[in-house]
Amino acid sequence: MFKEDLKKDLSTFVICFFIALLIFVLVSGCKSLPIWNNNPIQANPAPTPTEQLWQTVKKSNWLVTFSIPIIALGVVAIFNGVGKLGISVIIFGCVNLFMSLATSRFALIMAVFGLIGSIAVVAVSILVKNKALKEIICGVQTIKQTAKNDNVDLVFQDKIKETLSKQVKSTQKLVTKVKTTLKSKGEI
Questions:
Q1: I need a surface site. Which of 34, 73, 105, 156 has the fewest CB within 10 A?
Q2: Are residues 132 and 175 in the same domain?
Q3: Host domain of residue 174
Q4: For residue 178, is it within any domain?
Q5: Tens of pLDDT along 26-35?
Q6: For 27-82, what is each residue's pLDDT tens digit?
Q7: What are the backbone dihedrals phi and psi of residue 136, each rounded to the nearest 5 degrees, phi first?
Q8: In total, how many domains does the chain have?
């Protein structure tokens, strides 16, 4: 009888021990057992929204942040009828964006594309300016020749000379240079 009571007490003890162990594991987790605690993972608490915002602000490049609204401002200026200012602002914003990205993230690629873009913009602006100057000068020369050949009033001829004399010295030098080139090519 003593053996039966001992067996009963021992089985009760073992059952109680495993129930206590199960409750302990459920409450404290598996890392409390040495078998699963070989490589403890320490969980970092998730940052608060304020900390996330501050980390984003610390990581941002202010030149990039500054250039995006400038480009948008240029687009708004174009839509509001101020085309020259809008295009200038967009070009400024794009150059600012390219240079800030070139120095921070994609140095070689952005520098190459920025250089190619700058060369293309300069070439196009020079070609457009030269074409416009050529057309204007050829047009004025045609009007002058027509007025001279048709014996149009001297008043009209004097008005043309007066209007052209109001040009700035640098413009007059540029016009003279272009006229000389056009005369040598036989276009006027």
A1: 34
A2: yes
A3: 118-188
A4: yes
A5: 777 666 655 5
A6: 776 666 555 555 555 567 777 877 877 776 677 677 778 888 899 999 999 999 88
A7: -65, -45
A8: 2
